[in-house]
Design goal:
Distance between the termini: 28 Å
Oligomer: single chain
Number of strands: 16
Shape: globular
Structural class: mainly beta
Strand order of the largest sheet: 1-2-3-4
Strand content: over 45%
Length: 191
């Protein structure tokens, strides 16, 4: 039985996540729009925030641990940071890239990781008004499609179009482990 049906997306949803406290759901997709819902039993399913500044599809999104910020990755060659508020949610920062941004993950409250079509993972310093690159992690032979930070915050796991999965030590920004992946015909992985 449905608790509530979330409405509003136009086209495929390509990114979906619960907030760390499980009180919000964020989605992004082919309609270039980030939507935030508060899914409650008997609710209307109408988004509490609709944020539209991307100019191409959103491919990935992540909540910050604070539950008050969301990062999005888009084919428009940007990652964007959004501040969530009960009164009005807004865009906080635009992080331009040279190629399409396919994945995003918060390392902690001051660092964001992005993965791109150009095969590079970038770690961004979020402590300044305009985020700056802290480090670039290279090793993938294809676009970086998935980023995941382990619960202890010490390891970044990355998967790309190439045959390898990497574990990056976030203390040194070096590869800690490398796995050979079996040949597959899908681009979706769960970590």
């Amino acid at each position: 039985q449905d608790v509530v049906t979330l409405r509003g997306a136009k086209g495929a949803i390509t990114a979906l996540s619960f907030s760390p406290d499980n009180k919000l759901i964020a989605s992004g997709g082919e309609d270039h729009t980030l939507r935030i819902w508060e899914p409650v039993a008997g609710g209307t399913g109408t988004p509490k925030a609709v944020l539209k500044n991307h100019t191409s599809a959103i491919k990935s999104l992540a909540f910050a641990a604070s539950n008050t910020e969301v990062a999005t990755a888009s084919l428009d060659k940007t990652a964007r940071l959004w501040t969530l508020s009960r009164i009005r949610s807004t865009e906080k920062a635009v992080i331009p890239h040279e190629s399409e941004v396919l994945s995003v993950a918060y390392v902690n409250s001051s660092t964001l990781a992005t993965g791109s079509q150009d095969k590079v993972i970038r770690l961004w310093d979020l402590t300044s008004i305009k985020p700056k690159v802290k480090a670039e992690l290279t090793g993938h032979t294809g676009p970086v499609r998935l980023l995941h930070v382990t619960a202890d915050g010490k390891t970044l796991v990355s998967v790309g179009d190439g045959p390898k999965c990497f574990n990056w030590d976030l203390g040194t920004n070096k590869v800690a482990a490398e796995w050979q992946l079996p040949p597959v015909t899908t681009t979706t992985f769960a970590v």
